[in-house]
Amino acid sequence: MRISLLSTLLFAGTALSAVSAQAAGDLNLICSADVVICEQMKGDFEKDHDIKVNMVRLSSGETYAKVRAESRNPKTDIWWAGTGDPHMQAASENLTAEYKSPMLDQLQDWATKQAASSGYRTVGVYAGALGWGYNTQIFKTKGYKEPLCWADLLAPELKGEIQIANPNSSGTAYTALASLVQIMGEDQAIDYLKKLNVNISQYTKSGSAPVKAAARGETALGIVFMHDAVAQTAEGFPVKSIAPCEGTGYEIGSMSIIKGARNLENAKTWYDWALTSKVQSRMKDAKSFQLPSNKTAEVPKEAPKFEDIKLIDYDFKTYGDPAKRKALLERWDREVGAVAN
Fold first, then answer.
1. 8, 24, 98, 320: least buried by Cβ within 10 Å?
2. DSSP secondary structure code for residue 207 in this structure
3. Which contiguous run of DSSP H or E holds residue 29?
């Protein structure tokens, strides 16, 4: 009897350990934000959960391409952050899974609208307006006029002084392309970008790279989301952020669970956790100054205020549509990228 009881207890203990190990497991995450906030999110999640996060940092354009290429055999469970357009495109192509988080009622309207319009295949986690940051020391030394409007970026003296990312790899740059199309009309926007090309020294891979280069004095100005420029100012660099006078677009940084995720329950755990006030209030600690989607999350005092910016009514559904995105990028490649310096 003792042996039987001991065997039963040992078996139960082994089974419980196996269940615990299975419940812990792994989470395969792609993070499309700045690497500092990616590392902070990974560390905080692992402290709060018995789950090991295998994280890769990729731009949103690169992530969309990877998720699409691996659709028959997904290697990613969840995609956190990055501009909403490629998340919306992935949703429309059935590459991401429908999930209605119990946290939805705690989110800002713009975040829940993003979720509803995608069929609950993505959700907004933060928002940020497009603009630029320029190096005030370079502008002062060279006597450049402060650029307050999109039109000012065409000034001849800024030849070779501006950086922006490539819209094929960067969600930031695609947002810029789509914003200009919505502000000017497609033909006029492409014409503007052809003229701007003369002033572009480099089309970077990452969306935040241009303003980091400006902060280091490697270029005078970077076209980026304004919170990325503010982050450089907070680091002590001589960078001033500008919201263009004609109006500008904005991103809804999003989050999506990949369809066919191998660690689905762990992905849902991350999803719900990332939407909490506590987690979103911590983003400022990584010099991440976007507007959080949770209504009660602390808004960083450095965050650009949307009420002070002339924002367009950005059409996320249209410009996240696969056909529209493909056509716009092909035209940029043909008429702008092909003649890039």
1. 8
2. S
3. strand 26-31
Nearest to 304 by CA among 288, 289, 319, 325: 289
Strands 78-80, 162-165: parallel, antiparallel or unpaired by DSSP?
Answer: unpaired
Six token digits for residue 162: 């501006």
Which residues are within 8 A (CB) of 300 and not within 5 positions of it... i.e. 6 or more apart? 283, 284, 288, 289
Strand partners of residue 281: none
Distances (CA, A) of 188 to 32, 147, 183, 194: 30, 20, 9, 10
Q: What is the pTM of this model?
A: 0.82
Q: What is the pLDDT of residues 225-279, one digit of tens each?
A: 999 999 999 999 999 999 999 999 999 999 999 999 999 999 999 999 999 999 9
Instruction: In whole angstroms, give the CA distance from residue 43 to residue 52.
Output: 10
How is residue 179 written in tokens?
């914003």
C-alpha distances (whole Å) from 100 to each of 116, 260, 299 are: 9, 16, 25
